[in-house]
Specification:
The chain is an alpha+beta fold. 30% of the residues lie in helices and 14% in strands. It has two domains: 31 residues; 52 residues, N-terminal domain of TfIIb, CATH 2.20.25. Strand 2 and strand 3 form a beta hairpin. The longest helix is centred in the N-terminal third of the chain and has 15 residues.
């Protein structure tokens, strides 16, 4: 059985570009990311922009669909704080 893409629920509606963007966002959201605190646990999205580790319980604010956004990583690099 073929594996469905995250944008498979849209069918042929809304055009190829929007379905591809939707697929990219949903695949990034569902990807497994290690915890920046314990580096062993897997992060889960509690709500929009709130991420928590299943193992150590560490909770932090991040992006809506991914825990670390590009602008957030840039601000950490510019400010001189230790990177995650």
């Amino acid at each position: 059985m073929a594996r469905r893409k995250p944008s498979g629920s849209l069918g042929v509606k809304y055009g190829f570009t929007l379905r591809r963007r939707s697929s990219d966002v949903m695949s990034r959201r569902r990807s497994k990311v290690k915890c920046p605190n314990c580096a062993r646990g897997i992060l889960s999205r509690a709500s929009v922009g709130i991420w928590s580790c299943k193992k150590c319980g560490y909770t932090f604010a991040g992006g809506a669909y991914e825990p670390h956004t590009k602008s957030g990583l840039t601000s950490i690099r510019i400010s001189g704080l230790p990177q995650q």
